[in-house]
Structures are given as C-alpha cells and as structure tokens.
Amino acid sequence: MDQPVELGAKRYTDVLNSPNGEYINGKSYMSEPKKIVGPMEETKYAHLYDVERQEVAWNVLGELTGTAVDPAAQGAAPHLVRS
After folding, report:
1. Mean pLDDT of the chain
2. What is the DSSP string of 27-56?
C-alpha cells in the first residue's frame, strides 16, 4: 500500500461493513485503474460475467483433475446452468 496502514485498513472495513450502503456484497472495489490510492469504485471483470467462459473453465478443470461432472447434474454451480 502507498498510504498509512490505518487508511488502508479503513478502506477494507468500509467495503466489508458498507457504512453508507454504497458497497454491494460479492463485488470488488478498488481505486481506479493505474491509481494506487484514490476514491473506491466497483471493479468489473468481464470474464466473471461470461457464462460461456465459466463453463469452459469448469470443463477444463474437471478434465485436468479427473473430476469432470456436468454442473447441471451436480448442482454445484446453478448460475451456470442454461435454461
């Protein structure tokens, strides 16, 4: 961190506790790209919202580990199941 520990720790706890309700559970927050410090903003990773990429990654990991199971049959990742 490029700031006092107390300020850096406060940024973490502000996101965890969301004192003003501006932070949503399950999202990532940090300073704007290429800034070490500054106002916090939601960071969006397109690959995390790409269901097709998630399915490919799931299948590759299953093949590599020998645990390949259809996510729909297993129920472990219902958000990946297409209706």
Report:
1. 76
2. -EEEEPTT-SSS-EEEE--GGGG-HHHHHH
Distance CA 72, CA 83 (A): 10
Does 37 have pLDDT greater than 60?
Answer: yes
Distance CA 13, CA 26 (A): 14
b/e sequence 2-37, b meaning 16+ C-beta within 10 Å? eeeeeeeeebeeebeeeeeeeeeeeeebeeeeeeee
The predicted pLDDT at position 83 comes to: 46
Tokens of 9: 């720790």
Q: Are 80 and 55 in contact (CB under 8 A)?
A: yes
3-class secondary structure, 24: coil
Token pair for 53: 């990429």
